Amino acid sequence: MNNTIAYYDDIADAYIEGTLDVDMSSLYERFLPRIPKGGHILDAGCGSGRDAAAFKASGFVVTAFDASDTMAKRASKYIGIDVAVCTFSEFNSVEFFDGIWACASLLHVSRSELQAAFNNLISYLKPGGVMYVSFKHGSGEREHMGRCFTDMDESRLGALISAVEKV
To answer: Which residue of 13, 74, 134, 149 has the fewest CB atoms within a 10 Å radius of its CB?
Structure first.
């Protein structure tokens, strides 16, 4: 994970420029109706802050974090909120969330740490809350351009969800 964090620290400006204007509306249209009006959303691994900013502009309360200090600083400025710097396993909050958004972020957690990270996030989800996750399709772990990836297929994701610790 440290190589991945260093990668995003090093290329933050280019990454933000390349992703900030990506149209995510089709995903938002499936996620946001499941969140109560004015509900609280956690953007877990927020990157540029694109999604958190869209949620905030839509009237939701937003909390965000990223493991990259550089990305968190840039996102804080863009969103207009303090973005915490932590990993998924380190995340800790007194708040609980109506929705958790982990768009192309959990895919950077190693398979050996993924269940613990997933369980930690889920522990902050309110009863009836919804979580969005996305992975690259596959079944292995790999490194690509200095970033670590854990790929998932439907079966592996189903097993991850089924193994969530009940809190």
So the answer is: 13
